[in-house]
Amino acid sequence: MSSNVTPNEPVITSYAQAPARTVTAGGVTYAYRELGPKGGIPVVFFVHLAATLDNWDPRIIDPVAKGRHVITFDNRGVGASTGQVPDSVEAMADDAYAFISALGFDTIDVFSFSLGGFIAQALVVKHPELVRKLVLTGTGPKGGKDIEKVARVTYWDILRATLTRSDPKEFLFFNRNPTGKAAARAFVNRLGERTVDRDAKIKTKAFQTQLKAIKKWGRSTPDDLSKVTHPTLIANGDNDRMVPSVLSGDLHRRIKGSELIIYPDSGHGGIFQYHEEFAPVAVEFLGR
After folding, report:
1. What Pfam families would the database entry show (predicted)?
2. How far apart are CA 223 and CA 48, in angstroms?
3. Is 114 helix (H, G, I), strand (E, B) or coil?
4. Taking the model in full, what pTM does it have?
């Protein structure tokens, strides 16, 4: 493990300043960042479609990193990680497992968003002993209704964003009303807070392969989530156009004892729009 920390070194709790690191496993070099106090069970963040290390909202990461060792990473073939993007969610989960094992962890908490939530579910189904707690946001179960339509919605919104010279996430993650538009701009601005050592953008081919994997996930037979006994927190906005909000309720019903939060007047990025309310809830859940 790459912990060259001297005892009196100050703990970094700002994602904008988190050092970029790499670890190699199975011939793939994974890019990751870590922050927060070392020791204890780390919280590993699983990111969304087309996203790199630069796509995490610091208003979600920083509060968690105040008290926990936080790790964000690029899956194989994404951003600064080497190799090719796999064309199935299950293979992405295998890569995540290889990455976590290479860092030497045998127990983690998982914070996931969107595609990251699919990968997190696949990981928990395959390696239930690895995960202690699970946060699933803006996501849905394998074989969930309309997940395979994500590609269509995504391409349409990328087109709309291109025509208005804005970030596609403003369309994909937020409602197009005054509240949503303001939240979208604030979110995109926060993603720009890190000014040094930024990640490589995702390549078009990698993005298209991720979409293929999502389509396959949406068309597959559902996993038996009744086996998931981990404490689970599920959250979304009430108007998610990418991974329909009803799927959060579906997950909640399938995972016994899970907690569900649906934020009003918000979309796929509900947790980012409501970060002031959501971050303390996530911190409390993970710290329980």
Report:
1. Abhydrolase_1 (PF00561)
2. 20
3. coil
4. 0.96
**Mean of pLDDT values over 9-18:** 94
Number of residues that make up the chain: 288
Report helix angle 275-287 to 58-65, nearest 10: 30
Instruction: Please check whether residue 107 is in contact with residue 115, taking contact to mean a CB–CB distance below 8 angstroms.
Output: no
Domains of the chain, with CATH numbers?
Answer: 15-287 (3.40.50.1820)
Least confident piece of the model among 1-10, 87-96, 173-182, 234-243: 1-10
Q: Which ranges of 240-274 does DSSP label H, i.e. alpha helix?
A: 246-254, 270-273
Q: What are the phi and psi torsion angles at 21 (to 5°)?
A: -130, 170
Placement of tokens 């904008």 in the chain: 16
pLDDT at 9: 76
Q: Which helix (H) or strand (E) holds 64?
A: helix 58-65
* Number of helices and strands in the chain (H, E): 10, 8
Report the pLDDT value the prediction gives residue 6, as an integer from 0 to 100.
53
Nearest to 227 by CA among 104, 134, 156: 134
Phi-psi region of 228 (alpha: psi -120 to 50; beta: other; left: phi over 0): beta
